[in-house]
Amino acid sequence: MSENWIELEAKHFFPVGKRQPVTLVRGEGTRVWDEDGREYLDFVAGIAAVSLGHCHPEVVKAVQEQAATLMHVSNYYYTLPQIKLAKLLCEQTGLDRVFFCNSGAEAVEGCIKLARKWGKEKRDGAYEIIVAEGAFHGRTLATVTATATEKYRAPFAPLVEGFVRVPFNDIEAVKKATTGKTVAILIEPIQGEGGVNVPDDDFFPKLRAWCDEAGILLMADEVQSGVGRAGKLFAHQLYGIEVDVMAVAKGLGGGFPIGAFLAKEHCAALSLGEHGTTFGGNPLATHVGYTVLKHVVDHDIPAQVAAKGEHLERRLHSVADRHPMVKEVRGKGLLWAIEFDREAAEEAVRLCLAEGLLANNVKPTALRLMPPLTVSEEELDRAVEIVDGVLGRIEAGAPK
Ligand SMILES: Cc1ncc(COP(=O)(O)O)c(C=O)c1O
Asked: How far apart are the CA of 102 and the centre of ligand 1, in A?
């Protein structure tokens, strides 16, 4: 890769993120190419955002046609794509009302504001939100407060008041933390950034029952787990429950920025002037979102993901059997982590990259795989083969 780009990046950017030493210039399906024409299998997929693969013809057409028709006007006016997407989202989720924004953090921020407003109206001013250890909800001040990672939060204190943290997957802890001040629980059905943590099958049903009993809202952060990624359209559906409020983003745009939060009518507490956005829900983003969601629904992508996920799970377990350094593989659908007995994830990412596979070190000890939902079985097998070889090299003491 050209040194020039690395130097320019280092000169002009806040150094907040670590990049892999590769400049990507083109993509198609599960594959991307760097500026030297080298091909990679993309098992990062824009952090679980490129749901239908790179440059999916329907998504490209949607961008091109809508960009050439009407890109942006503002929410002072009615525009058709956002109304079509709102209707489809509500039909598919069983939720009643939607607000469109541009990112996951904005979607979760909206959920938090909605909960506070609802608490004022319906719960005597209750405002505390229960959140989980290992959670990631975004980087705005409120969502970073809801996020568990200390190093993301500490530099920005004082943080937003009113968040109470409990262990993930622990219903008794939720019960203990619930008081007269509690208004909601905000939780990922599968934790993504926390390392792909899947709760016990009965945790969400118990959580739903507790929220009903205590009269608090169950708010699902489906930013990473939603839109087919977990083998259901939304991951909370894996547990056979409904939620009161939900945040979506990432996969909804297939790579185009869009976010949304939705709520049931009984808690749709926001009214005139209480929330707003310039770009959120613009015709371009919502036409693309509509095209992606319609494709996902019409082609029953979640069922395909579930089948591919079972295949990937089997292959990953056989990798685990061959490599003592693998402590656990966990995930659902096409969101998986391989947990190591050592801090080898960064090295694994580097070696995978050299072998033509983009993967992510979600934790120092865990490698995350999240290919486009359209990935083929052959591509899954090839990626597993690369990971297998890489782990073999690490165990043999690969040169640093
Ligand atoms: C569960 C979850 N919520 C919220 C976010 C924040 O989304 P964004 O980066 O689009 O603001 C993420 C991003 O990784 C996420 O995984």
From this structure: 11
